[in-house]
């Protein structure tokens, strides 16, 4: 008999996999009627929520997995350090898995983890992740899951984020106050919640200062540096080129600086550059770059603490499951003609 998955149940009942997962885990978000429909079909089709994995988890391995897009990004490197500090102090081992921003790789890793011996999962999803059914399968199997930075809301045991909307608003406001009126925003993904939130903060700042949001100011970038550099160069050669650029992620910083150099645009005199970045070299770039610096280490600590507390079966207050740690606006010469 073909293995029945949550996707089969969802299709048969015309429900989302998230709803199926919540119904199977007796979530208060789901009505009793829907729960009964799901449970009835699950029994009829002999759906088994990965019993092997559940059985293995009966014995604690003192190991947690951390699934992230990459380690070249300074944010994730710092987050790993935060996670390991908490895990080591509690006697846990940390396994690091890299998705390289590929959804299929993320799915394969989670499938492997579902059949392996880990006690819990920390995850920051890929730029391609639009649906969470592959993560819901782990949740339905009873594996504690905590998201950090790049999240799906209301799935798993908690979320650790920063104040992306407010940070983006303040960064855009700063550029406007420096005289910028044509500010480009570099998108790294159309799916990621953090990018959408940062974009909304940018739009609101424009609105509050009487500036018109124009779609030509949005540059949708990829995961390939050379392609991104070409996109930015093309935009900088436009007759209505921007007077400022905000990079929504650290990966786009070097591409932006290179593109400006190749177009012989001086920073900050001709164009101003700012980014969401945890680059330790931000202060020694030429010129030093204004950044939104995320509390990566602290976010890693908070995510690990929440996960380990859940694994140990300790009581978790609902307020503890949604942690927001503010980022910092570091002003440097890339956005200011004169600095003190």
TrEMBL record:
Keywords: DNA-binding, Transcription, Transcription regulation. InterPro entries: HTH_LacI, Lambda_DNA-bd_dom_sf, Peripla_BP/Lac1_sug-bd_dom, Peripla_BP_I. One of its GO terms (molecular function) is DNA binding. Gene3D superfamilies: 3.40.50.2300, lambda repressor-like DNA-binding domains. This is LacI family DNA-binding transcriptional regulator. Residues 4-58 form the HTH lacI-type domain.
């Amino acid at each position: 008999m073909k293995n029945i998955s949550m996707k089969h149940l969802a299709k048969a009942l015309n429900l989302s996999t998230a709803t199926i997962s919540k119904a199977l885990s007796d979530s208060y978000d789901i009505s009793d009627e829907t729960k009964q429909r799901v449970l009835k079909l699950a029994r009829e089709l002999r759906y088994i929520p990965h019993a092997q994995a559940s059985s293995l988890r009966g014995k604690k391995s003192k190991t947690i997995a951390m699934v992230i897009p990459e380690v070249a990004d300074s944010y994730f490197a710092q987050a790993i350090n935060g996670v390991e500090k908490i895990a080591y102090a509690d006697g846990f081992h940390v396994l690091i898995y890299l998705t390289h921003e590929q959804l299929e790789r993320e799915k394969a890793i989670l499938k492997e983890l579902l059949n392996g011996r880990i006690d819990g999962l920390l995850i920051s999803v890929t730029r391609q992740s639009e649906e969470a059914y592959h993560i819901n399968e782990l949740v339905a199997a009873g594996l504690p899951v905590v998201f950090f930075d790049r999240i799906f809301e209301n799935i798993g045991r908690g979320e650790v984020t920063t104040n992306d909307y407010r940070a983006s608003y303040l960064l855009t406001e700063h550029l406007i106050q420096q005289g910028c009126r044509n500010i480009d925003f570099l998108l790294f993904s159309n799916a990621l919640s953090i990018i959408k939130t940062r974009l909304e903060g940018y739009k609101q700042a424009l609105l509050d200062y009487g500036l018109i949001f124009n779609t030509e100011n949005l540059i949708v970038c990829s995961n390939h540096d050379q392609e991104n550099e070409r996109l930015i160069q093309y935009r900088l050669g436009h007759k209505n080129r921007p007077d400022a650029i905000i990079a929504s992620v650290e990966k786009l910083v070097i591409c932006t600086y290179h593109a400006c150099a190749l177009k012989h645009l001086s920073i900050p005199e001709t164009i101003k550059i700012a980014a969401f970045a945890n680059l330790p070299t931000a202060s020694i770039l030429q010129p030093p770059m204004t950044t939104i610096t995320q509390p990566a280490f602290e976010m890693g600590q908070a995510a690990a603490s929440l996960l380990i507390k859940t694994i140990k079966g300790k009581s978790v207050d609902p307020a503890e499951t949604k942690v927001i740690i503010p980022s910092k606006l570091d002003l440097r010469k890339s956005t200011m003609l004169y600095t003190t």
